[in-house]
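Local shape tokens:
==================
===
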Amino acid sequence: MEYSKLVAVSGLPGLYELLNSKTDGAIVRSLDDRSTKFASSRVHQFSHLESIEIYTTRDNVNLVDVFQAMEKAGGSLPDLKDNGAIREYFEKTYPDMDFDRVYASDMKKMIKWFDVLKKNEVELKLSEPAEEEVEEAEEEATEPAKKTAKKKEEAAAGPKKETSETKETKSRKKAGTEEEAPKAEKKPAPKKSRKKAE
């Protein structure tokens, strides 16, 4: 089971594996009892674990960073009924957490989720971006440099030479006759009437 496929579903306890997405919801499997159900997007909201961030005293961190710290710390998890013990646990495990903005209910949820992840032997790591995404990111990063190089080349080459057609078009635009000056149609010359010699 991959960490990237796991979601939290509002209104439903525990964590779920996303099996299939639909326009009106998703089919999910509970990590607790392995039951499969359809969760409607009209009733529930889905949060991918990979997208959840935690407040810290510095920049926000991904939830997986906290899970990894919890895994590294080892030992037993605190009693979910004891808010003081929960806070003390996270002060030791992840001291950079912003305890003014991360509530006791959030910390309890992290402990529950961590316990479920360990029981299901889920590897706690973010999915690596696909090769195509990496290539796109590299292209976007090099695009400004390419534009700058192109501008330098154009400047070194000097102004573009105008063709006679370009000059003519510009002069028509100045005179305001570009539309009024279509190609002249050749009309046959009027025939001169000759008097017959008498």
About this structure: Strands lie at 6-9, 16-22, 25-30, 36-40, 46-48, 53-54, 61-62. The longest strand covers residues 16-22. The radius of gyration is 36 Å.
